[in-house]
Design goal:
491 residues; alpha+beta; 2 domains
Length: 491
């Protein structure tokens, strides 16, 4: 504890070094936490459903080209009857649109018709009001509606007083019974509202195959047994229809609705990029500590002469590292403990990546952002190391300038130190980059990447070298502007 207290006091005497170290750790840890949260939500645990491992989506795939459709109404009626035998819960949904008129403009809302138990099936109750009940599916009175949080905020100004009252969408009036939490947009990232769907409405559309069906298997029913049961329903459903091709029933885990085959490698690629950013973070901290330790050789020698052994000196250095790490760690931990903290960013990223058209573009944007963060962290590291080196070499710099060295020459000397390290690291960095690209089966666009792109390599090298020279400019200018007499008095 005494070593930790001393380390805190020592770091407070070097505010520049401490600020750079904490800023580097904060940015690195923050970026890693945010992106790993996205990866966890999208791949490891992409849904709020409690029994996700026993929740499946039912579909038909026709043999003529693999077109995927939903189960027919007659099959759904049989499933409703046998819920207690094979399934513990069943919910059905269907996409539709609603016209919304505001200030003379007409827009379409993306809506879903859902069975009354839909929200309880998804284990996500409305944040305001309630979900649908069986009475909401009756034809009497105005139909009920549940709005997404985004629709409620953007189109109805987030008015809480509208719960239980009529709202008008185009030519129709609805009773607003509930508003969903911000993160809930199921079954897709574009869902803006939900309407009640009765079993009778499903039965009335006997030739429709546009239903989405989710089931939760009973504890003693396997996925294979459920598939065999759906196959018997498909045979019975097609027996009375004049359809030349037989549909092939499929039963897929709910997770695959969130994570497509193209999306999963993309998310893990983003996670790998996060690890690289974390590696840059710790490399920067290591460089800063190494540079600072080189400037404390005399101090360490004095401590050793006064009786401190190597273990005690190492313990002191470890305490300083711990003191720098605690600030960004405690901050992230406190944020995670705050239940009122908004969680918009992961959900927004998740929404975009779930959509087939915007997913690759968003993944590219995230990768570009990570590259920018990594470059910025590297610039901080270079600037910090050179600044600390300049501070420790003030006496030498003063002697050089007192002996006639010009400010321009000192500026070139310090810049060369940063530029030399950058050039030495650029060549192996480019080679490692090509090796990593060649090892990738596909890129975020689903295409085979080319390991050697002369234009891209040249552009990246120029940007990196220019950025590091810019980072070196600040401490270099400081060194060239030193007063020789003040520098000579520095110890």
């Amino acid at each position: 504890m005494n070593d930790l207290k001393f380390a805190v006091r020592l770091l407070s005497r070097k505010p520049g070094f401490t600020t750079v170290a904490i800023l580097t750790l904060g940015i690195g840890i923050g970026a890693c936490t945010a992106l790993f949260s996205v990866a966890n939500q999208m791949v490891v645990n992409p849904t709020s459903v409690k029994d996700a491992d026993r929740t499946f989506q039912l579909n038909y795939v026709f043999e003529d080209g693999g077109q995927t459709v939903g189960l027919g109404s007659s099959a759904l009626q049989e499933i409703f009857k046998n819920t207690n035998d094979r399934f513990t819960a069943v919910t059905v949904f269907q996409f539709t649109t609603l016209k919304f008129e505001s200030e003379g403009f007409i827009d379409n809302l993306s809506a879903y018709n859902v069975t009354p138990g839909f929200f309880s099936f998804m284990d996500t109750p409305p944040m305001l009001g309630q979900g649908f009940s069986e009475t909401d599916t009756s034809a009497a009175g105005d139909p009920a509606i549940v709005l997404s949080h985004r629709t409620w905020k953007s189109r109805f100004a987030g008015n809480k007083d509208l719960i239980g009252k009529l709202i008008r969408l185009g030519e129709n009036s609805f009773t607003l019974v509930g508003v969903m939490p911000p993160q809930f947009r199921f079954p897709s990232g574009v869902a803006e509202c939900w309407l009640p769907l009765s079993h009778d409405q499903i039965a009335a559309r006997r030739n429709s195959f546009m239903w989405g069906t989710l089931v939760k298997l009973a504890p003693d029913v396997s996925q294979t047994q459920a598939l065999a049961y759906i196959e018997t329903l498909a045979d019975a459903e097609m027996a009375g229809m004049k359809r030349p091709l037989r549909p092939i029933p499929t039963i897929k885990p709910l997770r695959e609705m969130f994570v497509s085959e193209k999306l999963e490698p993309t998310v893990w690629a983003l996670s790998a990029a996060v690890l690289l950013v974390l590696l840059i973070t710790w490399a920067n901290i290591g460089n800063l500590l190494l540079a600072r330790t080189q400037g404390r050789v005399k101090e360490m020698a004095i401590r050793g002469a006064l009786g401190a052994d190597r273990f005690q000196i190492a313990r002191l250095l470890l305490a300083e590292t711990l003191a720098k790490s605690v600030a960004p760690a405690l901050h992230e931990a406190l944020r995670s403990l705050d239940p009122a903290q908004p969680v918009g960013t992961p959900e927004i990223i998740e929404d975009f990546l779930r959509q087939r058209d915007t997913g690759p573009r968003t993944a590219l944007l995230i990768l570009f952002s990570l590259a920018a963060v990594g470059l910025f962290l590297s610039m901080i590291g270079v600037a910090g190391v050179i600044a600390f080196t300049v501070a420790e070499r003030q006496r030498e710099i003063g002697i050089r300038m007192a002996l006639g060295s010009s400010r321009a020459r000192m500026l070139r000397l310090i810049l060369w130190q940063g530029g030399r390290s950058t050039l030495i690291g650029a060549l192996p960095g480019a080679a490692i980059g090509m090796l990593l690209i060649s090892a990738m089966p596909v890129n975020v666009l689903g295409e085979k990447p080319s390991p050697f792109d002369p234009l891209a390599l040249a552009l990246v090298t120029v940007v990196v070298v220019a950025s590091f020279l810019f980072a070196s400019m600040i401490p270099a200018r400081r060194a060239s502007n030193l007063n020789p007499m003040e520098a000579l008095r520095h110890e």
